[in-house]
Amino acid sequence: MTTVQPLNDDLQYGIKAISLGSPLYPANLAQIKNPPNILYARGNFELLKQCPGVAVVGARNATDKGLKITARITEYVVEQGAIVVSGLALGIDAKAHASCLAAKGKTIAVLAHGLHMAQPHQNTKLAEQILENDGLWVSEYPTGTPASRNHFVPRNRIQVGLSACSIVIESASKSGTTTHARFCVQEQHPLFAVIPQEGNPLGLNSEGPIMMVKEMGATGLQSKDDYSKLAEAIFAHDP
Hints:
Blueprint: H1 8-13, E1 15-19, H2 27-30, E2 38-43, H3 46-50, E3 53-58, H4 64-79, E4 84-86, H5 92-102, E5 107-110, H6 124-132, E6 136-139, H7 149-161, E7 163-169, H8 176-186, E8 191-194, H9 207-215, E9 219-221, H10 227-235
Parallel strand pairs: 3-4, 3-7, 4-5, 5-6, 7-8, 8-9
Antiparallel strand pairs: 1-2, 2-6
Helix pairs in contact: 4-5, 7-8
């Protein structure tokens, strides 16, 4: 496998190009059906050796209650000693990263562009805080590659490959989060989805999670009592 030599910009930003087959390449990511030949990383490279983590993803147009649930679940994941993996998108993704940092945990942002920057621009400060707190940015795209609509679906498989399980908190039935769930099914990867109590008293955006439980085999999370199921999935990957 050919290793991409770092460009001047890679050196400037501290970006490392990691070839499939390299000792630093995450073992779980290497085992998915279509792993990236090169994984670009910026920040605390040691986190790659500690994967798999836990992917926490969901809707950009999250509700206030959905964001609170995201914080609670993320704090639980950090308490279990796991790395939080997400996509730095607005809404649930950003809340997962921020809640992880607030809980003194480590987090990986999987980006859909080169690592010379972080988008969306509304989350630039959060992205910088991830690096400042020994976190990591990763991407399959080389330095200078702009964000593109075509990049968002493929990055879901990287989130899945870096994780022991995925947790969906709010989404529509047809959304980018649903493509993440489809990658979970394809990889036989444990999928969890937050579903509402009867009557949806919290007004959660639950169309996607309910569909994932009914049609995709996701395990429903309805209260704190269900969190032990997450721990089982996390520790199932311990050596």
